[in-house]
Each structure stands twice: as structure tokens, then as C-alpha cells.
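Thread: "does anyone have the structure for this chain?"

Original post by V.I.:
We have the sequence but no experimental structure in hand. Need at least a predicted one for the grant figures.
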Amino acid sequence: MWQQIGMAIVGFGGGMIAAGGMVALLIGLGITPRFAGITHTADRILLYEDFTMLGAVAGNVLQLYEPSLAVGKIGLAVYGLGAGMFLGAWILALAEMVDVFPIAIRRLKIKVGVPLIIVTVAAAKICGSLLYFYQGMYR
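Reply from O.Q.:
Generated one for you, C-alpha cells below.
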């Protein structure tokens, strides 16, 4: 029993470290302030950041304990909407990260092969994703 309690504490702690890093990256990239700016609700930015962290904690608990949740079609729709918004936020952040390529290329003084570098990065991402799903690592 003590071993299971210890494993639960270590698992939860490790998940919190990963989730905290993800939330810090999400907030650090400026996604949360940008949402507040777009919706003209900058006075509630701390609430947005609190709910972002709450979502990370809830996701950690759900991933760790895998409870069976019978939420029905409405719950599935709400989850789908939230997951879509989250994914859209990450796509927005990644689109801003594309600005890193011109800066890095200028600083590294790369003159030739830029398209090849970009295609190689994209191909590596595709290969990694295919390998991930082929080996069934997602479950």
C-alpha cells in the first residue's frame, strides 16, 4: 500500500512539473494575454491564468487515474470545444515560433540550404508522429 501511495505522489508530482512547464510556455508565449486582448477582458487575465493552471491539474489527475466519466453527448461537445480551443492556441503559438527561423538563419549566417533545412524539420516531425502512432505510444 505504501508503495502505491509513493508511486501516486511521484506520478502526480512529475505530471505537475510537466503541466506547469506547459502552462508556463503557454503563458510565456503570450497566448493568454492575446486572448484577453482580443476579447477586451484584460482585467480578468489572472482568472484566465488560474483556469489554465486548473486545466493542467485536472488533465494531470485524469491522465494519472483514468476515471470513467459518463458525460454524454453534451459533455463530449464541451470537451471537444475546449480541446479545439486549446489546439488552436498551440497552433497560434507555433505560428509565432516560425519567426525564429529568419532570426536564426541571419545569426548563423546560413546562405544556402534554407529550404532544405525547413523541409527536413517538417519531415522529421512527420516521421516522429507516424512512429508515435504506429507503435501505439498514445495509449
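V.I.: this helps a lot. The first helix runs from residue 2 to 28.
O.Q.: and The mean pLDDT is 80.
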